[in-house]
Amino acid sequence: MLELDDIQSGVLRPRPSPYVATYILLRIDERSAGRELMRRLGSVVSTAAQPGSPNADLGLSVALTYHGLEALGVPRDSLDSFAWEFRQGMAARAKALADEGESSPEHWEPPLGTSDVHVVLTALSPDQARLEAALDRARTALRELGGIQALWRQDCHALSTGKEPFGFRDGISHPAIEGSGIPGSNPHETPLRPGEFVLGYPDETGGVSPMPWPDVLGRNGTYVAFRKLHQRVAAFRQYLKNAAKSPEDEEVLAAKMMGRWRSGAPLALCPFHDVPALGADESRSNDFHYSDDPTGYKTPPGSHIRRTNPRDASVAGVVRLHRMIRRGTAYGPELPDGVLEDDGVDRGLMFGFIGAHLGRQFEFVQEEWANGGDFLGLGDAKDPIGGAHDGTGDFSFPNRPIPRRLQGLPRFVVTRGGEYAFMPGLRALRWLAEIQT
Question: Where is this region: Disordered (predicted)?
Answer without folding.
Answer: 289-309
